[in-house]
């Protein structure tokens, strides 16, 4: 199977950005630094750029994978491990239905959906999934279609509905990526691959880039799982010595 090195490079850049973003998070919430721009719109845009890239790229790469069931289960297990660890060590910053849980669930859900979605023209699928992602951005707040449709309160009941995108009162997660709207972004990546394939653009992704970025991209899951405990430990040691 061909290796599309540019995809690894993009993922590697996102890994670096993610580590730096979480370092800033630790400095603010553990180190007590007052960094105004990080708490405002610039910080939000930074965070969104990371998750948008990871989710869209994961959907794109889903079609390249050969062991989809195994990969989905591994990523889902990583998400479960993060949830259990945060509940045990720092429940005040617990992670429920974080990005790894989303990615793992999306990878698994796409296995049966692929039989249906593969019949859809890729450009149309990309437009529809992108539109659904945009229209359902605020379902967790009780509305959709940019506030034009108010959703019934009965949808917001328990952990299952929170996983879908309808959290009940009192639900909290420091890293919350429910299936709606984020599955639609994953699907947009799935269809984006079809667009690249149909237009013979995949060859543009074969160019060899940076070996360091490629390595980071190929080990993104492992880095995600270990980087935050390492950063938190370093911040704790530094703040204890100061």
Number of helices: 10
Structural class: mainly alpha
Residue share in helix: 55-70%
Number of discrete domains: 1
How do the strands line up in the largest sheet? 1-2
Termini separation? 52 Å
How many strands appear in the DSSP assignment?
A: 2
Name the poorly predicted regions: none
Main sheet: strands, sense, barrel: 2 strands, antiparallel
Describe what is shown at a glance:
The chain is mostly helical and 242 residues long. The protein has helices at residues 5-29, 36-39, 41-62, 68-89, 99-117, 122-135, 159-164, 179-198, 211-218, 220-241; strands at residues 143-144, 149-150.
Please name the defining characteristics of this protein.
two-stranded antiparallel sheet, 2% strand, globular, single chain, 242 residues, mainly alpha
Topology readout:
Elements: H1 5-29, H2 36-39, H3 41-62, H4 68-89, H5 99-117, H6 122-135, E1 143-144, E2 149-150, H7 159-164, H8 179-198, H9 211-218, H10 220-241
Antiparallel strand pairs: 1-2
């Amino acid at each position: 199977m061909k290796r599309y090195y540019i995809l690894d490079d993009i993922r590697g850049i996102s890994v670096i950005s993610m580590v730096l973003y979480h370092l800033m998070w630790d400095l603010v919430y553990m180190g007590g630094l007052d960094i105004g721009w990080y708490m405002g719109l610039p910080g939000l845009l930074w965070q969104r750029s990371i998750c948008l890239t990871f989710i869209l790229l994961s959907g794109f790469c889903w079609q390249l994978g050969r062991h989809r069931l195994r990969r989905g289960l591994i990523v889902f297990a990583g998400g479960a491990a993060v949830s259990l660890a945060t509940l045990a060590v720092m429940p005040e910053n617990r992670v429920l239905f974080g990005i790894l849980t989303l990615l793992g669930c999306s990878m698994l859900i796409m296995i049966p959906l692929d039989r249906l979605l593969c019949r859809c023209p890729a450009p149309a699928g990309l437009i529809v999934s992108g539109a659904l992602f945009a229209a359902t951005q605020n379902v967790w707040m009780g509305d959709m279609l940019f506030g034009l449709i108010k959703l019934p309160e009965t949808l917001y009941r328990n952990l299952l509905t929170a996983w879908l995108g309808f959290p009940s009162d009192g639900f909290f997660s420091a890293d919350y990526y429910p299936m709606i709207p984020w599955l639609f972004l994953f699907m947009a990546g799935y269809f984006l691959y079809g667009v690249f394939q149909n237009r013979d653009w995949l060859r543009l992704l074969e160019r060899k880039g940076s070996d360091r970025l490629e390595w980071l991209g190929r080990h993104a899951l492992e880095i995600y799982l270990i980087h935050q405990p390492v950063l938190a430990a370093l911040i704790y040691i530094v703040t204890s010595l100061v």
